[in-house]
Amino acid sequence: MEDRDFDIVEEEHEGAARTWIWVAIVALVAVFAFGVGAALMLVSNRLGGQGPAATATPPNATRIAIGGTAALSSTPALTVTLTPTATLAPTATATLTPTATLSPTATPEAVCTQPVDDRLAPLYDKSLYGCALGMAQTVWAAWQPFERGAMLWRSDTDRAYVFYDDGAWFPIEERWDGAPAADRGNPPPDRQAPTRGFGYVWSRSDAIFNRLGWATDQERGFCALVQDFDRGFLLNSSNVPSCTDEGLYNQATAPEWRELRLAAPEERRVNGSGQGAMPQPGPNRPASAIVRPANQGVFPAPRLDGLILDADFGEWPGGWQPINAIVFGLDKHTGPGDLSASFQVAWLEDGLALAVRVNDDHFQPGPDGTAMWQGDGLEVQFDRRLAEDFTSTQADDDDYQIGIAPNEGYRGLRGYQWLPFSKENTLALPHAVTATDQGYDLEVLIPWEVFDLGPGEVEANRAFGFNLSVSDNDSDRPEQETVASASAARTTHDNPTEWGTLRLLP
After folding, report:
1. How many Å separate Cα 467 from the centre of its chain?
2. How far apart, in whole angstroms, are the C-alpha atoms of residue 40 and residue 406?
3. How far apart are CA 23 and CA 369, in angstroms?
4. Are strands 137-146 and 298-301 parallel, antiparallel or unpaired?
5. Which helix (H) or strand (E) holds 446?
6. 247-to-135, 237, 250, 279, 379 alpha-carbon distances in Å
7. 63 near 36, Cβ under 8 Å?
8. Are the C-beta atoms of residues 458 and 451 closer than 8 Å to each other?
9. Where are the alpha helices (DSSP H) in 205-267?
C-alpha cells in the first residue's frame, strides 16, 4: 500500500510539474507574440506606413481602390509574417501622380502666318527655311555664272553672294568702293574675268577664285522675285518688262536667258573659305534633307492614289515645270516652238508617273534600240542613292537613264534603258500619247522595279536625283540636234551631280 501511495503522489507531483511547464511555455509565447506585434506597430508608425499587408483578407476588411489598385484598411493580425519593407513605399500611392504629365510634350510646330509665294513654292521646304518673313518682292539683281558656281547681287540688300555648285553659299561682307580688280592673268579660251564688284572680290580672294574658276558668261542685270525666310531665302528670275524706276532692261526676258531658280537655306551657308559646305546625312540630318543646288531643279512629286493613262491631264494637280534650258545644239534651236516642254511628276504605289507637254514643230522619230536618242523623245535620269554618292560625277549602278520616244504617227511609246550598263535593254512602259497642234502630250508610268526599288523603299519625303530632257531632230537622218533640259547644269548624260532633286510629297 505505501509503495502504491508513493507512486500516486509521485505521479501527482510529476503531473503538476508538467502543468506548470505548459503554463510557462504558453505565457512565454504570449509575451513574445505581444512583443513582436508591438515592435512591428512601432516601426510602422515611425515610417508612416499603414501596417504590413495581410496574407488573407480579414473578415472585417474594407477594400479601397487607390490609383486603380486595391489596398486593405484593416489592422493587421499579430500572426502576419510579411516583412515591414513592404510598407516602406506603397506602390499604390505612386499612381496618384499621373506619369503622363511628367513627360515632356512635343513642341507644337510653328504656324506660319505669311504664305509662300506660289512661284517659289516648288523650291520651299519648311524644315529647311522655316516661315516667310514677309511677302515676296521683285527686285533688281545681277548674276554671273562661273565654271564651278555663280555670283549674285541683290539691290534690296545691296549685297553680293557667292554660290558654289555643291550648294554651299555665303554673302560677301566686303563692300566694293569702285577700286579696280587685281590681275589674275589671261583667262582660258571661252572664259572671261569678271569686272566691277564681282571682279574686285573674285580677284582678291584666292579661296573664291580657286573654287569658282573663271566666268563663263558676262554679268547680267535682271528682275528677281525673292522671298526671305527665318533661315535663308528663295529667288526666281522674273520676265516682267522691267522692275526699276529707270526702266533698265531685264535680261530675264532675253531669248537666250535660262530661268534662274535659286535656293539659299541657312544650313548651307559657309564662310568665305567654304568651311561647312553641304553637311552630309547624320543622326540629326535625314538623307531626305540632301538636295542638289536649286538652280538645277527641285521637283516636288505629289502622291496620287490612282491614274488613268489617257494623255488627259485632268487628274494632275497642276504646277507645270519648264524644260527650257538648251544644253546642246543652241545654234540649231530657233525658239520655243522648235523645242520646249513642260512637265509634272507624281508618284504612286506602283511607280513614278510623268505628264509631259512637248512643243516640237517637226516630228522625226529616231531608230529603235540603243540609238533611239537620235530622234525626238524624252530622257529620264534618276539617282536612287542621292545622299550616299552625292559628290560622284560618274554614273554607277544606282544611276539610271531611261529613253521614251513616240512611234511614227504617235501610235504609242517606245522605252529603252541605257544606264546602268548591266541593265541596258528595251522597256515596255504603261503609257498614253496623243498629237497636239504644237507637238505631242504623253503620260507614262515607270514602275519602281525599273529603278531597283522594292516594297518599303519608297515613302513620302524621300529624295532622289532627277532630271528630264527633251531631244529634237529636224533633219532627215538619225541625229540629236538639240537638247532641252529641266536642269540648266546638264552637260552630259552620265554625271549625276548635274541633275536636280525629286522629292516625294505626302
Report:
1. 18
2. 95
3. 115
4. unpaired
5. strand 439-447
6. 23, 17, 9, 42, 40
7. no
8. no
9. 206-212
Q: Going from the N-terminus, what domains does the chain have, and what CATH number goes with each?
A: 15-92 (no CATH), 121-268 (no CATH), 296-504 (2.60.40.1190)
Predicted confidence (pLDDT) per residue in 455-464, tens digit = 889 998 899 9
DSSP state of 338: T
Q: How far apart are CA 398 and CA 252, in angstroms?
A: 36
Residue type, 400: Y
In angstroms and rounded to an integer, the radius of gyration of the C-alpha atoms of the chain is 41
pLDDT mean across residues, the chain: 80
- Helix, strand, coil percentages (3-state) for the chain, rounded to 5, are 25, 30, 50
Within the chain, what is the greatest distance between any pair of CA atoms?
Answer: 157
Residue 410, all three cell numbers: 504617235
Residues 6 or more apart whose CB falls under 8 angstroms from that of 417 comprise 400, 401, 402, 403, 423, 424, 425, 426, 427, 450
Looking at residue 389, its pLDDT comes to 84
Signed CA dihedral, 13, 17, 23, 24: sign only? positive
Distance CA 75, CA 261 (A): 81
**How many whole angstroms separate alpha carbon 268 and alpha carbon 162?**
12
Cα(486)–Cα(69) distance, integer angstroms: 66
Cβ atoms 449, 438 nearer than 8 A: no
Which cell numbers in the block locate residue 469? 530632257
Model pLDDT for residues 251-297, shown as the tens digit of each residue: 999 988 888 989 899 888 887 655 544 444 555 555 555 778 777 88
Alpha carbon of residue 405 to chain centroid: 32
| Residue type (1 letter), 403 | G
Rounded Cα–Cα distance for residues 288 and 390 (Å)? 12
Q: What is the CB neighbour count within 10 angstroms for residue 210?
A: 10
What's the pLDDT tens digit per position in 181-235?
Answer: 888 889 999 899 999 899 999 998 888 898 899 999 999 999 999 999 999 999 9
Half-sphere exposure of 436 (CA within 13 A, CB side): 15
